[in-house]
Every structure is written in C-alpha cells, then in structure tokens.
Design brief:
Elements: E1 11-16, E2 20-26, E3 32-39, H1 45-64, E4 74-78, E5 81-83, E6 88-90, H2 104-112, E7 116-120, H3 121-131, E8 141-146, E9 150-156, E10 159-160, H4 191-194, H5 196-208, H6 215-221, H7 229-237, H8 241-265, E11 269-273, H9 274-292, E12 304-307, H10 314-321
Parallel strand pairs: 1-4, 4-7, 8-11, 11-12
Antiparallel strand pairs: 1-2, 2-3, 5-6, 8-9, 9-10
Bound molecules: zinc ion.
Zinc ion binds near residues 172, 184, 189 and 191.
Length: about 325
C-alpha cells in the first residue's frame, strides 16, 4: 500500500470579504493545495462570521487532504480596524453588526485548533503580490485594489509602509474638488467615481431617470442583486453605453488618483488588483495607464502597470503568509 503523501507544514489563509470568504491551504512553498469559498453571513454578527470562517477553512483543508488541527498556523486578512497584537477586529463596516472589537483570532483558533494571526485585507493582498506575484521583481510598488471600494497598499524599499496604521487609503485621494459624495461622507474622493459601490449607485440613478442599459437585465439573468464585476464585464462586452460611460469615469478617476500617488512616491510599479481590476484585466490596466499619463509630472518614464497575478486567491494566499 502506498502511504498517503503528506504535505509539509501546511498553513491556512483566509480572505474575509463583505460578500465572500475565500480560504486556501498552502504548502511550504506557498503553493495552493486546497481552497474553498463561502458566502459571508449577512446576519448573526461577528460570532456567525467566525463560525463561517472555520467552516470555509475546514472545506479547504478537506480539499487539501489535511485536518484543520494539522495546520501550523492560519492567517486572516480582514476589513475594519485590526489590532494584530490583541487579535481583534473592530469597525468592520461591510460585515454584520461589527462595531466593537471582537476577539477573532482567539475565537477562530478555538474552533480550528491552530494558532491564528490577523492583518488588514489590503496589506496581505499587497504582500502576496510583492512576494509571490507580479511584484517579485520590484523593490517598490503601489497596489490598487479596485473592487467595492478602492484600497491601496504601498511597498517602499522592500517594506510595506503602513504609516500610523492607516496608510494606503488611495480611494480617498481627492480627484475632484467639491465632487461627488463618497461612501466615506466626504466629497470628490477617487472611490466616489471608481468604487463598484459608487458605480452601482450611479447606474441606478441614471437608469431611474430613464437611461437605457443592459446592466440590470444581466444582473437579474445571473440571479444577482448587485452589479458584480462579472455583470459590469458582460455589459462592456455587449457595448452597453451606460456601462461604458460609468467605467470610463472610473478609469479617469483612477488615472488621476494613481498618477498623483506616483508623483508623490515615484514607485517602480503599480499593481492593479481587486474584483473589478482582475476581472477587467489587461485591457483596462492599459486604459488606466493612458488616463494616468497627462497627470504624471515625470511623464517620460512612467511606472510599470501590472495586473495582480494571484487573481482572486491573492488575499487568501497573502493571509497564509502571516502564518509563517
Ligand atoms: Zn472617501
């Protein structure tokens, strides 16, 4: 009988998002050997979310042929305010009833039977691209995660720059004085034009005022309640005018904001990730590069613009790096 092949030192990584929980199991070489995805609970508060994280990890472990308790560690990339030392998450706006600090590391560790580390979701996704993805060849980069919101991660001289804990909020760089209202409550932020949440609000408003679009038909046909990245991509493929206009505004805003960040930091590369960034891919990374160009102060040597190589699993793989 052939003995079962054991994976050396398997680790878990979980990307906790507002709509989905993605878990991976990686081996000692950071290769993914199992993965699973569940919907994020919309009710039940932090306890329900912690239970869903444990379930998703258990499914990924089963796919990898290991017991969760055999994992040498588990990392979690979470939205909200993270206290990594205390293992708590607070103020996670996109998660149900999650305002006060909740001891997520302890709760998950008890459920899984392995040590758990936490960090910010954008930080771990940036670390994954820097160490294992398209950022491998650079010492400095800016990660731009274009999804429901627009998150940013900054690596300078091989180190992630977190400032006093809140660096990288590129979505809230002002691209238009007195411009559209942002979900953060301020005006003219890049996210007010480029965040998928803001893009959907804009689409609903224009549609209500009589503009024609395929967006909501595609959404219903796919059984969705929101304009997901896949819905936007399909509408663009169909040549939908309104989708083109709104995505065009998003690209313009990204061009302004990212070029301004480049003027400040002069990093070697910009990595475009996030749900929309990965889904729209290379052609839209080129459009963002073109939109940046008029705003670059040193325009004869723009940074490389790359699409995140680890795709949808990047956040979870980056979270697994926390568990080394
Ligand atoms: Zn804002």
């Amino acid at each position: 009988m052939t003995p079962t092949r054991r994976r050396a030192a398997p680790r878990g990584g979980i990307d906790l998002g507002g709509t989905k929980i993605q878990a991976v199991i990686v081996d000692g070489d950071n290769e993914v050997v199992g993965d699973a995805r569940h919907a994020t609970p919309t009710t039940g508060g932090p306890e329900a979310v912690a239970a869903a994280l444990a379930d998703t990890l258990a499914d990924a472990a089963a796919a990898a042929g290991v017991e969760p308790s055999e994992l040498t560690g588990v990392g979690v990339g979470s939205p909200g305010a993270i206290d990594a030392a205390a293992g708590t998450v607070a103020q996670a706006r996109n998660l149900p009833d999650w305002i006060d600090p909740f001891p997520l590391a302890d709760r998950l560790s008890d459920a899984v039977g392995a040590p758990v580390s936490l960090d910010n979701d954008v930080s771990v996704a940036t670390a994954a691209e820097f160490e294992l993805g398209v950022g491998r060849d650079y010492d400095s980069l800016l990660g731009v995660f274009w999804g429901t919101g627009v998150g940013g991660g900054v690596v300078l001289d091989g180190q992630q720059w977190v400032g006093r804990g809140a660096a990288g909020e590129i979505g809230h760089m002002v691209v238009k004085l007195g411009g559209r209202r942002c979900p953060c409550g301020r005006r003219g932020c890049m996210e007010a034009y480029a965040g998928r949440g803001s893009m959907e609000a804009r689409a609903r408003k224009l549609h209500k005022s009589g503009r024609k679009t395929e967006l909501f038909k595609i959404m219903k046909k796919r059984g969705r309640e929101r304009l997901t990245s896949g819905v936007w991509a399909r509408a663009l493929d169909h040549g939908d005018d309104m989708a083109r206009e709104i995505v065009g505004e998003a690209v313009e805003a990204l061009g302004n904001g990212v070029a301004s960040a480049v003027n400040l930091l002069d990093i070697e590369a910009v990595v475009i990730g996030g749900g929309l960034g990965v889904r729209l891919g290379e052609p839209y990374a080129r459009k963002i590069a073109r939109a940046m160009h008029p705003h670059l102060f040193v325009d004869d040597r723009p940074p490389a613009i790359e699409v995140a190589a680890l795709g949808d699993l990047g956040g979870a793989i980056g979270a697994a790096l926390l568990a080394r």
